[in-house]
Amino acid sequence: MKRFALITIVFGFITTNLFAQFSKVESVKMELEDPNIAEKDLRECKANIDAAKENPKTANDPKMWYYRGLTYYSIYASADAALKSENPTSIDIATESFFESKKTDAKAKYTENADFYLLYCAMGLYNNAINSFNAKEYKKAVEIYKKILQITPLDQKGDLKRNSGGEVTEEKITQLMYYAAQAEGNYTDAKTYINKLISLNFRDPRIYADMATILLMEKDTAAALSYVEKGRAIKEDDKNLINMELDIYLKQGKLQLLLDKLNVAIEGDPENKIYYFARAVSYEGLGNTEKAEADYKKATEVDPDYYDAFYNVGVMYVNKCNPLIEQYQKTYKQSDIDTLEATMDKYYKIAIVNFEKAFENPMMSTAEKVDLAGTMKRIYKKIANTAKEGEMKAFIESNKGK
């Protein structure tokens, strides 16, 4: 009889302890989901859910994991600065908890809600990754990006992509991973991420230029050239890729081969502006600005709205002024000063005419136009066109930060 009483007492203790842990999870649920509680006691929720997590009876309970995720996400989203400061890894814990809830949720009672909140977690993780990258903590940034890539497949309706302005997608996050790996000097991983982007059909010529740059560092000019050619198949007139192709042919001692290729291409298709543009960039890279300008002009004759060609001519003439400025600063003879000033004035006027045409480009982003307007403002000041200088200043002020 006494033995039976002891068993009853022990069983009662176990039952009470188990109920206490489940009641902690339930109390968190009630606190977080009760619409009548405006100010949630997140510290109490945290204490209860942490206790439930440590208890072996509830450690693998999908409900506990879900409400742990919700608790820590609520902390991350809280306006309580002190609470957020006390829990600097709250978004990481929330993400881990929602995934654990899905993993242990055999009956899928919480999975749909966990998926919903994981999309919000992705945005928090993205912000943290950007902060880590800006702080030059590149390894940490990559680890966070990897967590985000676990979430992006859940974005079946495109909500995450839409709400992030297209920044949080598998392609974009992979691109940021290669930026981080490249910045860290981890070129092995950078190549892996670039090749993944290519397999995802990510059509940005920069990835081919960056891969070629890495391969050139590794002295593999043949492989570098193959990536340049792949990139130019996407954007044939990408100046960076054209310059890189020129550089590779120079390294291989095959410059004439490149020019021969362009000459044959132009002969076969004399109305193709891209070929003239590519040959112009090649000549410019060789320092033959006269032939470069002739080809840029030919490209704009084929297409009077070929803004890239106008822009390049403008840059070329600004660059022509740079050595003249150095001479000017070292010259004290008035006749030499007058000659230099006249030449620079001539070059700046040619540059500004071409920049004005480039500025009309409807495809140029506002940020790019602001940058170009800054250059134009400085040139207008040099050629004493105060009215136009004022226009550019006003444009910059009205579009700054857009």
Q: Could you characterize the architecture of this molecule?
A:
The protein is mainly alpha-helical and 402 residues long. Among the domains are: 254-304, Alpha Horseshoe (Serine Threonine Protein Phosphatase 5, Tetratricopeptide repeat), CATH 1.25.40; 310-402, no CATH class. Helices cover 78% and strands 0% of the residues. The chain has 20 helices and no strands. The protein has helices spanning 2-33, 42-54, 62-77, 81-86, 90-104, 111-134, 138-151, 159-163, 170-184, 187-199, 205-217, 221-234, 239-251, 255-268, 273-285, 289-302, 307-330, 334-359, 366-382, 386-399. Helix 7 packs antiparallel against helix 9 and helix 12 (221-234) runs antiparallel to helix 13. The longest helix is centred in the first third of the chain and has 32 residues, at 2-33. The radius of gyration is 31 Å and the shape is elongated. The termini are far apart. Mean pLDDT is 89; it is low at 1-21.
Provide keyphrases for this structure.
20 helices, 402 residues, single chain, disordered N terminus, Serine Threonine Protein Phosphatase 5, Tetratricopeptide repeat
